[in-house]
Amino acid sequence: NEADVLGELLHQGDVTPTQIAARTGLTAGSATTLIDRLVSAGLVARAAHPEDGRRILVGLTPRGRSAIDTMFSLFAADLENALSQADPALATDSQRRDSLTELLRAMASSLRARAADPARIQSSVRAAGRAGDRAACDSSSTSGERAD
After folding, report:
1. What does the pLDDT look like over 103-141, one tens digit per residue?
2. Of these four, 18, 61, 66, 132, which has the most CB atoms within 10 Å of its CB?
3. Rg of the chain over CA atoms, in angstroms?
């Protein structure tokens, strides 16, 4: 979750703890604890909201920016290595690489949009749970056992 928050701050700029909680799926208390850890590590800082003194914003410190930049660089190198091992032609075929980049960009955009809608995710999880409960009931009724 720490890396998620640092990445979010890198891409979105300063955000409120409420936004961090929503983005990470954490409760407000858990988000506060996570932010406290990041503050203690010197990776983020809290600042007063410029328009609403009752609220605060959380933003990257220079150390936090350096940390997330390093994480992204390592991730990019890992991806590069994995892609070149999976398909060595990607190293020399710029058209093939561009096509893959566009595909991955579209996939990432779709995943970000879904992740930004926690209500939809929670609804899907609840629906999947209900479907699993029904399947368990159906399975136990056909085997003569009672589900508790």
Report:
1. 988 998 888 787 777 777 777 778 888 877 777 667 666
2. 61
3. 21
